[in-house]
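Lab notes, practical 5.
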Amino acid sequence: MSLTLYYHPLSSFCWKALIGLYELDVAFDKHIVDLGDEAARSALLEIWPMGRFPVLRDDARDRAIPESTIILEYADRQHRLVPTDPDRALECRLRDRFYDLDIHVPMQKIVGDRRRPEGQRDALGVAQARTQIEAAYAIADDQLRGGAWAAGDSFTLADCAAAPALFYANKVVPFAAHRNVASYFARLGARPSFARVLDEAQPYMAMFPG
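Output from the prediction step:
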């Protein structure tokens, strides 16, 4: 098969790529990368020197495509995840960045801090991350008054970003008080692509710190 996704089934940004690829019905192989294994890490570095996943390897074109958003744009040949209308496409991409940068990244700050040894934790950084997530929840709650999905009435790239961001963020900064966000997340949970990702991740969930 031409396409291979290098990923880990517990990685939130890998979830984003998987959700989109499943939505697009793309045929691809999956290769789990254990960054704790030196050989596996070295193999990933050969494909993408930054050493981050997900990375999509396209053997037919002899290309490696890193970063979840770029992977989905690369695979979205029929514009099913990014609208063709320029204004709607811009809004979709803006909300993709919003969920990645204002919920996903600060969530990772909090989770990463839990992995640090006692005495090396960043209480101020965690507090700032919580504040950023709470502010983002309020913005998302207002945005979600306008449609069933993150960028309107259709499932898009923005929803691929929102699903893993909200899943993990809810574990560290619950969003139950934000009714539109909570209702939206319930809709995401019923989406077959996201449900499939969650099912595949279950054997690894015990590894999540909290």
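Observations recorded by the TA: The domain at 3-75 is CATH 3.40.30.10 (Glutaredoxin). The chain has a mean pLDDT of 95.
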